[in-house]
Fold:
Amino acid sequence: MNHKRTAGLFLIGLWVLLWAGPFARAAEMIRVAYPSINASVFCVIIADKEGYLKEEGLDVQLLSIRGEIAIRTALAGEIDFFTNAGSALAAAVRNVPVKILTVFQDRPAWDLIALPEIKSIAQLRGKNIAIMSPEGSLAVVAREMLRKNGLDPGKDVNLVVMGGDSIRYPALQSKAIQATLFNTSTSIEAQKAGFTKLANASEYATLIQGGISAADVKVKENPKKIARFIRASLKGLQFFLDKREPAIKYMMGALRMTDVDLANQIYDVESKLQLRYGYTDDQVLQGMIDSMKRTTKVTRDIKVSDVFDLSFVKKANDELKSSGWKP
Structure:
């Protein structure tokens, strides 16, 4: 009797090892750098919270790292991905071995916010304007907005390199700077506090603001891992667009917000700018490359495939469509 019971327990244990084993293994950790909380980060957070990363055998660690530092960290192999798509574009144009793997947003959502007494972009002449990095998306858009309003960004204003919104907003409050571009959440907060909205960046530029990038060596060494992460992130993006109420809750948690009305305002702005399938037309991408070439004074011919590898996100879209997946 005891022998039979022992044999039965052995068979049950063997079945658990064979069938449950793959799911019981520890998830593979991936490290993702971000410069500030935005829709690209929301997608990864949702992918984590909704179990999409776990389904792919992945776990995520999010690290707040500024654009050019994130690229150096990626090249050193210390992180797997980074959401600093504008900095990635500038680096790739300079022939740094990185690739942009998704484009979640091809129009910037930033608002140009200034001190209350400044009522026009023309009044920024001689003022300090904060940017995140010398050649990132925010800097490129800031220069374009100044040029289109008759100001030479190299002569008429002082561009000051700072960190994310959490650093630049206190600098604006203390009047150490007189203007900067803010993400939607900080912009709304600043306007409520009496600061002036001078313009919205989407009216001036088509430029990558949201996306996932990686060092070339990571893409070449482990394409299956790349594919798993991109598929989970794409699910996170589509959840964000299709599930308004839970998406707003996740967003509020990420931003540590308690103001529901503000969260709804942010969602309304951000969701309209997101690219559901995680990529855009080659013509738009080539325009981004050409604009960055002018900014960085690079003259060599650069094709879309030299900067972007959208094969993973396109394959993920095909897989989700063929499986009938819905968030």
About this structure: The first strand starts at residue 28 and ends at 34. The domain at 111-203 is CATH 3.40.190.10 (D-Maltodextrin-Binding Protein; domain 2).
